[in-house]
Write a structure and sequence with these properties.
Length: 345
Amino acid sequence: MSNTEMLFPATIAGSLPKPAWLAETHKLWPQWRAEGAELDAAKRDATLVWLKLQEDAGLDIIGDGEMSRQHFVHGFVENVAGIDRANKVEIGIRDNRYKAMVPRVVGKLELKERAHPWEAGFLRAHTKKKIKFTLPGPMTIMDTVSDQYYGDRVKTAFAFAELLNQEARALQAEGVDVIQFDEPAFNAYTRQAADWGIDALHRAIDGLTCTTAVHICYGYGIQANIEWKRMLGSEWRQYEDFFPALAKSRIDQVSLECINSRVPPNLMALLEGKQVMVGVIDVATDTIETPEQILATIETALQFVPKDKLLPASNCGLAPLDRDVAYAKLQALGAGARLAREKFG
Ligand code: ZN
């Protein structure tokens, strides 16, 4: 995607709240409300609802809101062979920030079939806007499973990168404009992100001609993350460790947290040459941003990012939020981007 046709194309990081008739609400790992064919139909219906609401809010790059996956990592892992999901084990993930029950890698990893067989084609069939599809990044998947086969974190991540590449190529063939990899683990392992995390992303995007993106956040607005952020001090400088390497990478877009975060905005200057998805929507509060506040955040970012490379976005996914709050935030995002276009277009 070239970013030249319209300034400030607005988009979300990825996930949106599941409607109450599809799954439990306000949860990162909700139980489905239906099963079998009825569940499949409910996932499609929920995808259509959010597609329409994103368009109505004035967003420019539309996603599926991750309506068809229970969790952003496990939605992919579910369709991978070589994994035992029946006998999960508890481990510390994201450098021990949380304890989680995770599946075990017990054999050679292979994609059984498509991880996301229908979602991209369905989106493509129902909107004329650009579409984005999110996948978990290789380091983040590796950090969310217990490897008992490869014996090496880097090897495990590259094995996942290979499978992500297969899926990404198929998504591209279905008409996806932007493929985004979610790598919250980069902020937990900042040196490894620069040392090999970006190489693993390169493996995942090998051969792609569509726009590629990486989303690196400080996590959903859940309690464990809110407490972690309190311990990070007055300036969050994690991005500084790997943005220079990302600037040299073949990834086209980088998504980062901005509004209400303690990330020094001048770190965005380290991404010279990249399109930057600037977080102008806070996902850790129910307070709805005003379009003027969003414009102000965009203006801050414009000190470090050229206007033709800036995409206003949410800091992270909106899945755990109340559905009405999430929609109001999307409307604010669309309105804020419009204000910016009026001022700088
Ligand atoms: Zn995120």
